[in-house]
Amino acid sequence: MVNKINDQIKQILHNNYLIGFLTFLISFLVYLKTLAPTVYWGDSGEFITVAYTLGIPHPTGYPTYILFGKLFTFIHFGNIAWRINLMSAVFASLSVMLLYFICYKLTKSKLVSFATSLIFAFSYTFWSQAVIAEVYTFHIFFLTLNLFILLHWKEKQKQQQQQNHIHQEEHQELLYHQYNQKYNYNRWLYLFCFTYGLSLTNHMTSILFFPAFAYFVLVKEHRSLFKIKLNKDVLKFKIIVICLLLFIFGLLPYAYIPIRSSMNPVWDWGDINFSFDKLTWHLSGGDYQQFMTTDVFKDNSYEFIHTISQEFNFLLISMVVLGLILFYHKSNKKKDFTLFYLIVLISLCSLIYSLNYKIGDIGNYFIPTYLVLTLYFGFFLKTISCLFKKINKQIISSIFFVIILSIPLILLTTNFQKNNLSNDFSAYYYWLNIFESTKSGDIIIGKGTHDLFIPLYIQNVEKNYENRTIINIYELTKPWRFKEIQKILPFNTTEKVLFTYKTSKEAEIVAEKNIKMIFDTYSNEKDTYTTFKHLTTDYNLIPYGHLFKVSKKNETNETNETNETNKINNPSINQLIKLKYPKIKYPYDEVHDSDGIDYISNVLIYYGVFFIEEKEYGQAISHLNKAINIKPTSFDAWNDLAIAHYQNKQTKEAIHAWENALEIKEDKQIRKNILALKQRIK
Q: Which pLDDT does position 183 carry in this prediction?
């Protein structure tokens, strides 16, 4: 009976497709368990909204993502945001499965491929993108799909060449059969050309992989640095024409952008319509070209080194390096470097671009490099497994089996809490608080993508609070959006509105100039709020819920009314959340996004400073402690807490808070303060 069960297990383990599906299933169940329940910080709100309403997002448009996202909105369970989040989980899991098959083609080891694919699945950054509405897992899906197709094509090509060599002098009928085989393997090349074109319509950075893919297609053998043999089989007119046509066919989803833009969707970034200039500007990422600069190379290099330590610990990094060396050694031994340079070029081209790109979520651009590093780790495991096979001892082999499978399990347990967004309602709750503290007709001016895309989702997908006017200062730097805002809030100005700027600082000056025009026009007839503290000196900013109410300096301060009616934790919001999501606790207890942590902790810090100025030190201390609970590394929170304690004549507590501030950042004045207080105690 036992032998029969063992035979069945062995039979299952020999089924390569079943193991591949198992990698999909395991990763998908983990992603599903940790999936964000609603809209998240960053670009999440925009992607959900444009998928649901078929709109046009920020450059480069992502039409294939939008169209697939629309299909996911037809799922009959979960809210719309959850359904688009689910799309990320599905394509992340498919990427993991494809990575298994890629690794198996390279190592011929099911165990190593299984472990390697799950190591990537549970790596921090990739997992973080698998549980929110974002384009990066779809991007990696296309990368792994294209890589798998190319490897399969090359494999079929080599098999055909071997058959040709063996049977080159046999009957003509066999040659005819060989021609058909040749035609069949080129079908994989044609499929690649289509899927590669399609991948560009999801994320334009797929073009960075072109040197690697072109090299692998055009080079038949690469024996040493200068000994390269071209693949003449693909350099034929008919094959080139078919490949180009299929590649262009894959680009067809880009037609969605001008067609849909002409229909005036809810969100139409760039107002492209059928303007060729606007379309090329959008597809080339024109709005973000200013962020391509070598000035950030050093900072991004440090960031890359830092994030690698999050993905792999020191021991795993050393194994990755050894895997790269072993991969090179194996290529040198076989006298063929085509596979080696394919894998290296994928990571190198992507990494060089990323290191020169100034953007907040730069860590996500490193994911293709992390994938390649994981493959190097697979080569290391393959070499070690071969050594253990030579030893041929059952106990040692079993220990090695357990060790290999324990690595993805360790990553799973290490990164689970960091990436578990199943109870993270912070972004949604943050804006519900804002909406509930305002009334119909009010103007809310925000700053940053969170203040642009989260309310975009709530107003246009959930159809709530549509009677508030949301303006983001970023929008005021874009002519297409400025025109839309003037339709909603028309205002007259004698000054010419300028939209030309070279840096983000110049853009901010333009935006704040335009904001002042709105304030000057509507301050007497509409209540106006901002989500940020700094503003022109002509106005007061009074803390109001999660907002600051804007008033002219000669107006009376509404502090008392504000304090009584607009608590930072609005009770009506708490009841709304509990009614809609009864299983969750206080939503701010779980905030994972770094920008979200900054937003919420800053609100609490602003309140703390406000109450210090009002000499309500107990309230100040309470709010600053909450800010520290959310962000323990906040220098400002610790410093302001020390000031509150000092003003409240709590000397020991002030010293303790300032000492914590110094651990975060050196400050000479704080050191003097601590020294003076300690001498006073003596």
A: 52
